[in-house]
Every structure is written in structure tokens, then in C-alpha cells.
Amino acid sequence: MANLLPVLHLMGAEPVAYTATAANNTADATRARTILVMATTDCYIHISDSTAASAANGTYLPALVPLLLSLPAGKQISAVRVASSGTLSVTEVKVSS
Q1: Where residue 1 falls among pLDDT bands split at 50, 70, 90?
Q2: pTM for the full model?
Q3: 3-state DSSP of 28-62
């Protein structure tokens, strides 16, 4: 019987400290990958090639809520705080069934 839920293999995390000024991850962006993100405080996240996250363009991510995303090649994820500075954990994952 096949697994009904995917198995996530964690490949390593990159902490991204954000404040009132947005911060980007710096991991290899030359290939598409699946990432798991979770923030220590409420923040806005945005995926792009160079645009920083803001309340206007970002997606709200509540604190301590894991989110699985596809990060296209050439793109980075950016985070900026809602009220309190924090850290966004960006973990590359391999998904298998």
C-alpha cells in the first residue's frame, strides 16, 4: 500500500533574521526546490527575484505555522515583520510518497 501522506526529507535549514527591513534567504537559487518555512513571529513573506517583502505585496504568515512552498529557480523568499522582529526558518525538503 502506498503512503497516503508525502514523506518530507529535511535537507538543511537557513535562518533568515527579519526586522522592519525585509531580509532575503541566500541559499542557492539556481534550481527550483520545495521549501518548508516557519517564522518565530508574525511576518509577511514574498517570493521574487529581487523585490523585498512588505505588507502591500507579502503573504501573511502567522508565527509558528509551517508552510510548504515551491521556490522557482532564480527566486528568493523575503520576510518582514508585522510587529516584532523574528527569524524565518527556510528548510529545503525532498518530497517522496
Answers
A1: low
A2: 0.90
A3: CCCCCEEEEEEECCCEEEEEECCCCCCCCCCEEEC
